[in-house]
Structure formats: structure tokens, C-alpha cells
Specification:
Elements (H helix, E strand, L loop, with lengths): L5 H36 L4 H8 L5 H9 L4 H6 L1 H22 L4 H18 L3 H15 L3 H8 L5 H28 L3 E2 L2 E2 L17
Antiparallel strand pairs: 1-2
Length: about 210
């Protein structure tokens, strides 16, 4: 008879509805990026996506999502740069795998980080282009031991070629990452966003008037 009484049943359904509402809110939040990414992939401009979704999604969240995703035109115009970056990152991982044959824990750590960066670059994650450039810049600095080896001729010819190839590869990776960052994501820095005079997030290179 407990379930047939009025108040307990109402209270039970109220709790259930609140739980469902909370779950749907999380799902909606998680699906914003997927929804925006699909529309941009279909060829819509960022302004067109903004106009289509502004009534369905919180404006701040929508602007931030748009700011962290490239349009189809941006992907197309930067495909050579992006493809070259993916190739060089894969080449660098190959170097890591060769070094890993020596069971070097540091190299294993570098390998895992480089794999993470490669996946993020393929997905066009906005934060990875600056973050990755900083990571590779730290790797680019030569240790005193390596400098002495190079200056004193302590490396074999094969080791010297491999050393120089790796250095040039890392330098090119840094240049490509910073170039793509400036061309596609000039309005974001990691998880921070540039704002216009109305304190609204700028989601495209030319600040919009909204």
C-alpha cells in the first residue's frame, strides 16, 4: 500500500525526474562539441553554426566550443601543414621506439607523451599546438654531455646523422605547431579565450560584432 499512497509516490517520481534531468544535462554538455564539430564538418561557417544553435546552447559554451574547433575550410587550407606535422610526429615516435630498444625509462615516458600529442594533433585539439611546441622546445635543448660529444667528435658518423635528423625533425615540429596555432587558433591560449569589447569570447579570427 506504500506505493499506492499519494505523497511517497509523488516524492519518488520527483527524485527520478531530477535524476533524469541531471543526467540529460551532462549528456547535453558532452554532446555540444560533437554537434558543433559535425555542423562545421558539413561546411557551415562558424557564424552559421552560431546562429543555428544559439537558442539551444548557452552562448558562452557555444562560443568557447566554436573557438576550439576548425572549420572545414580551415582544415582544407591547412591540410599540407597538418599532414606534414602528423608525419613528423610519427617519425619522432619511430625514433623513440628505436631508442626504447635500450629499455630506457625516460625514452618510454617521452614515447607515451609523444603518442598523446600525436592523437591530439590528429583530432585538432586547440591546446596541443602551443602545449606541444613548448614540450618539443624543452626537448630541443641539448644537454652538456651531448654538446661535448658533438664538439669533441665523440659520436660515430651514424650517431651524428641520427642526432642531427632528430634535431631538425623537432625544430620543424615546433615551427609547424606554432604556424597552425596562429592560423587556426589565434584567439585561444590553452584553455583561455580572447574576448571582445563586450567581454564575449571571440570564436573566429576577425572579431565578430555580437
Amino acid at each position: 500500500m506504500y506505493w499506492l499512497s499519494g505523497k511517497p509516490k509523488v516524492k519518488y517520481f520527483e527524485s527520478a525526474l531530477l535524476a533524469i534531468h541531471s543526467t540529460l544535462g551532462v549528456i547535453t554538455s558532452m554532446s555540444i562539441r560533437t554537434q558543433v564539430k559535425k555542423l562545421l564538418g558539413d561546411g557551415l561557417t562558424k557564424d552559421e553554426v552560431f546562429n543555428e544553435l544559439i537558442g539551444q546552447i548557452d552562448e558562452e559554451k557555444l562560443r568557447k566550443t566554436l573557438a576550439t574547433l576548425p572549420t572545414r575550410e580551415q582544415r582544407k587550407s591547412n591540410r599540407i601543414l597538418h599532414g606534414s606535422l602528423v608525419f613528423l610526429l610519427s617519425l619522432n615516435i619511430l625514433f623513440n621506439l628505436v631508442e626504447q630498444l635500450g629499455n630506457n625509462f625516460t625514452t618510454l615516458y617521452d614515447l607515451l607523451v609523444n603518442l598523446f600529442i600525436l592523437i591530439a594533433v590528429i583530432q585538432y585539439r586547440n591546446w596541443v599546438f602551443l602545449g606541444g611546441a613548448i614540450w618539443f622546445l624543452s626537448m630541443f635543448g641539448l644537454t652538456s654531455y651531448q654538446i661535448n660529444d658533438v664538439l669533441n667528435g665523440g659520436l660515430t658518423q651514424l650517431e651524428l646523422i641520427a642526432f642531427l635528423t632528430l634535431g631538425i625533425t623537432i625544430l620543424l615540429i615546433i615551427i609547424l605547431m606554432l604556424t597552425i596555432k596562429s592560423r587556426v587558433f589565434p584567439y585561444t591560449t590553452f584553455f583561455l579565450f580572447k574576448r571582445n569589447e563586450f567581454q564575449k569570447v571571440i570564436y573566429q579570427k576577425t572579431p565578430n560584432r555580437r
